[in-house]
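Dear Dr. V.,

Thank you for agreeing to look over these. As mentioned in my earlier message, I'm a first-year student in the group and I'm still getting used to reading structure tokens, so any feedback on how I've presented them would be very welcome. I ran two proteins. I've put each sequence directly above its structure. The first is here:
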Amino acid sequence: MENQTISANSNNLRVGIIGAGAIGQAFAKQLVKAGISVTLSNSRGPESLAGIVGQLGAKARAGTVREAAEADIVFISVNWVHLPAALAGLPSWNGRIVIDATNPVLLPGYRLAELDGRNSSQVVSDLLPGARLVKAFNTLLAAVLASDPAQAGGKRLVFMSGDDAAAKDTVGQLIDRLGFARIDLGGLDIGGKLQQFPGGPLPAVNLVKFG
């Protein structure tokens, strides 16, 4: 259904993860801890993820990229050079929410990929026609993302940006449910630049909100 209304607090919420590397696994850990069902996927197929989902527990399952892309909310954390191939051939997004946790990094040297004057989330959005994209969770290191968001009486901050207010509201609810705090940086034109690594000032910044 186009622009379907999703509650991030629903007991039936399903999240799909495309890219089950360190960031994808860290995010899956937080989802399972919050009681949210998650489908992990990668380019090597579900069998390669059996050990990971076994460690995560009953709320986690391995699936194909197509199965992960059919979830209520889809989290993408794929190496930049592999992103077009990872998203190719998927069915229409039909207004589903996509959390973009990618960074336009080229190795070796952590070089910035060629973006033709745009920021990375604007490029990713072009690869996901019909999706409602929210940039989030890309600025925290994997070990930090996997750790307890409750810190010294406060909550670890997650930055987010996007051009669809309703999609940002849903992702914001999800951030809250996972136990993090959030800061909305506005649209992708500004927020996407601030969050982007390399180039933006916010990646690897680890802040805690009190009160």
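The second protein is here, in the same arrangement:
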Amino acid sequence: MNLPNLNSFNFPPVVKTLILWIGGALLIAAAYRAYEWKGVALVVTGLVFWLMLHFTRLMQALKRAANRPVGYIDSAVMLSVRLKVGWSLLHLVALTKSLGVLQSEKDAQLEVFRWTDNGNSYVDCTFVGGKLASWQLVRPEQV
């Protein structure tokens, strides 16, 4: 049975957070009803483990990005082929192993980040609400 991914729905981030908190509380309540405090301990342990997995993923992505120049990728063309609408900035940082160079004003809702390769080709990625909305590959003219 395939459960729907929460990211496949177009909920605002606040609603997604609320759904996760309510879902966690319902899990804890159901565990208490079924197994009393043993069930609560099991569910809370599972939830903490899930949070630690996400935190570890975040730290690993940032650790890899810290070892590379900001905004550098091996191939802008290959990056533009692999991109998908709806990806988070963290997903892109993990993919490129580099932080993008911010092209838009700080704290603007349309965030534009740029990744450049050795041939001066670059990909501009536009994020709306923390999710990838569009991207553009720009290649220099060949002489």
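From my reading of the second output: DSSP finds three helices and four strands in the chain. The chain has a mean pLDDT of 89. Does that match how you would interpret it?

Kind regards,
E.
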